[in-house]
UniProtKB/TrEMBL annotation:
<dbReference type="InterPro" id="IPR003599">
    <property type="entry name" value="Ig_sub"/>
</dbReference>
<dbReference type="InterPro" id="IPR003598">
    <property type="entry name" value="Ig_sub2"/>
</dbReference>
<dbReference type="Pfam" id="PF07679">
    <property type="entry name" value="I-set"/>
</dbReference>
<dbReference type="InterPro" id="IPR013783">
    <property type="entry name" value="Ig-like_fold"/>
</dbReference>
<dbReference type="InterPro" id="IPR036116">
    <property type="entry name" value="FN3_sf"/>
</dbReference>
<keyword id="KW-0677">Repeat</keyword>
<dbReference type="InterPro" id="IPR003961">
    <property type="entry name" value="FN3_dom"/>
</dbReference>
<keyword id="KW-0393">Immunoglobulin domain</keyword>
<protein>
    <submittedName>
        <fullName>Roundabout 4</fullName>
    </submittedName>
</protein>
<feature type="domain" description="Fibronectin type-III">
    <location>
        <begin position="203"/>
        <end position="242"/>
    </location>
</feature>
<dbReference type="InterPro" id="IPR036179">
    <property type="entry name" value="Ig-like_dom_sf"/>
</dbReference>
<keyword id="KW-1015">Disulfide bond</keyword>
<dbReference type="GO" id="GO:0098609">
    <property type="term" value="P:cell-cell adhesion"/>
</dbReference>
<feature type="domain" description="Ig-like">
    <location>
        <begin position="3"/>
        <end position="90"/>
    </location>
</feature>
<feature type="domain" description="Fibronectin type-III">
    <location>
        <begin position="98"/>
        <end position="198"/>
    </location>
</feature>
<dbReference type="InterPro" id="IPR013098">
    <property type="entry name" value="Ig_I-set"/>
</dbReference>
<dbReference type="InterPro" id="IPR007110">
    <property type="entry name" value="Ig-like_dom"/>
</dbReference>
Amino acid sequence: LRDNFRLQPGDLVATAGQVLELDCVPPSGHPEPRVTWKKDGVTLDLAGGRYVVTKGKLKVAPARRSDSGLYVCVAANAAGERQSRGAHVSVLGRREAAPRDLLAMRPHLDNVTMLPTAAVQLRWQMLPPVPALVSFMVLYRSLLPTSTSWVQHDAGKLLSTIIPQLRRGHQYEFKVRPYSGGTQGLDSNSRHLWIPEEVPSAAPQRVTVGRAEAGNGTVVVSWEPPPPEAHNGIIQGYKVWG
């Protein structure tokens, strides 16, 4: 399990009775890791049939209010175990009466600003003024160097939020969607932001030097990449000198 999760689960708001889905693509490993899920620190029991895990994705049907909580994707093989970020899931007990004009409203995403920690702050507005029952969901995904599924981040009733710990060297797309109960409104305009790279903050690991078996004076140097959290971008190559 050398790499980080290829796709982390995102925060989610669902309505009771719906199908609740959380995505997870575990790190690559040999053998291929097995995926399980924990809710509030307790491993989910798949025997009841309400929880189904397929290729890492968790499906819960039908969703209940008691399904609200913190979900973690766990990848494990003979070499070890790694856990994903925690995804906050909220399940409403009933459909709130959506404002009659929710579908006529569209948020405007004003700006997307990178913070020093590779987090991103988003601000948006909505005209006419926001009805009391309306909340907002921020959706974001990586476009480059790899394309990922949309991740959801619940901003509540605020008109701004911070998305923490995005990956350096990646270009992201952001948009905002209003919702009220089980009804979702129109998506805002999209904005793109590239997270600048920085020099790796750790050296390659497990560097070894040895002679080649041929005995012709050739020296073999091997190493492993720095820890994933220290890459600070896309590592393009290595230079070796002596």
